[in-house]
Amino acid sequence: MSLKNTACIAGAWEHPTRRADDKSVAQLHAEVARGALADAGLTLKDVDGYFCAGDAPGLGALSMVDYLGMSVRHVDTTETGGSSYLVHVAHAAAAIAAGRCNVALITLAGRPKAEGMATGTAPRNYGPAPDVPFELPYAPTTVNMYAMAAMRHMHEHGTTGEQLAWIRVAASHHAQHNPHAMVRDVVTVKDVVGSPMIADPLHRLDCCVISDGGGALVVVRPEIARSLKRPVVDIIGTGEYQRAQSGGKVDLLTTGAAWTGKAAFAEAGVKPSDIQYASIYDSFTITVLLTLEDLGFCAKGQGGRFVSDGNLIAGTGKLPFNTDGGGLCNNHPGNRGGMTKVIEAVRQLRGEAHPKVQVPNCRLALAHGTGGSLGTRHGSATLILERA
């Protein structure tokens, strides 16, 4: 069943905090929920579907529905890491189409900055996960898993550190206009490749920030969206995929976007060249490069050339991306950046991005999320959104 035009995003809100020493994770969830509902012109009493992932405290949806004082008839706690929230948008559309709910609330929140988490450079231990006994002895970290993919791309396609650096340069050009961005300094290619090496070939400025905060979305029936005093953002294309290790037979250069992009574009009835703005998960610069290739914005192996020379900078490049500064400069709440990718895409379609980075007459946008690790198992999800 196609989900095209079965639901709309009516509310979107990003928490302004980047360090939440004085707030609990549950409180952050509540604040982003209130913000997104207010943006839509709705209240908690209107919500009859709730969506959250592993960042929700306690018993997830059970705890949060009670904490927020809601009465809902449908919940979804799909967990695919940072891609969860794009999956939730698609699942909310499916639930609305099936008559399971009319107003779906999706929330994300976390406090890794306040809690001092060594995200990215400490070995990840998922406890009883089946992969742990086999992989933990080799001390895999997030950054070295992505560094393997970057090094492989350099080996096979001649990609350079300078080309990767252009992704951070573009993000920094956008972040300078975002008063909430953690890092607002505009950088050059020389700055990026001259920053300390974290895991060869990735430098410090190839890596995303660590931040607290969160965000929320409200997905509703089209007739409800059109009754509200907000621009209507239609969901016209969706795709989700889980790329596994396949017993070690893994191509480090092929991400889940190779499947999700095809599905989303086919459902939407559009092609990559039609997209006016793209929100691409940017945990690392290599994440963006590989995702752009697999979504079809350029041929495999050509990502380095595609992102170079300001091609991703709003106002000058062919494909403006992450105009809020993205995870590289703005924020990466709870180490899960998929939510903010959808929020900025909604801003662009509504014409509510900062004037310096707003895409003129933006009517068609793409958002993509990645969860897990490109170097091992990961989830991918793609949304194509259209302003009605």
TrEMBL record:
<dbReference type="GO" id="GO:0003988">
    <property type="term" value="F:acetyl-CoA C-acyltransferase activity"/>
</dbReference>
<dbReference type="InterPro" id="IPR055140">
    <property type="entry name" value="Thiolase_C_2"/>
</dbReference>
<dbReference type="Pfam" id="PF22691">
    <property type="entry name" value="Thiolase_C_1"/>
</dbReference>
<dbReference type="InterPro" id="IPR016039">
    <property type="entry name" value="Thiolase-like"/>
</dbReference>
<protein>
    <submittedName>
        <fullName>Thiolase domain-containing protein</fullName>
    </submittedName>
</protein>
<feature type="domain" description="Thiolase C-terminal">
    <location>
        <begin position="249"/>
        <end position="386"/>
    </location>
</feature>
<dbReference type="InterPro" id="IPR002155">
    <property type="entry name" value="Thiolase"/>
</dbReference>
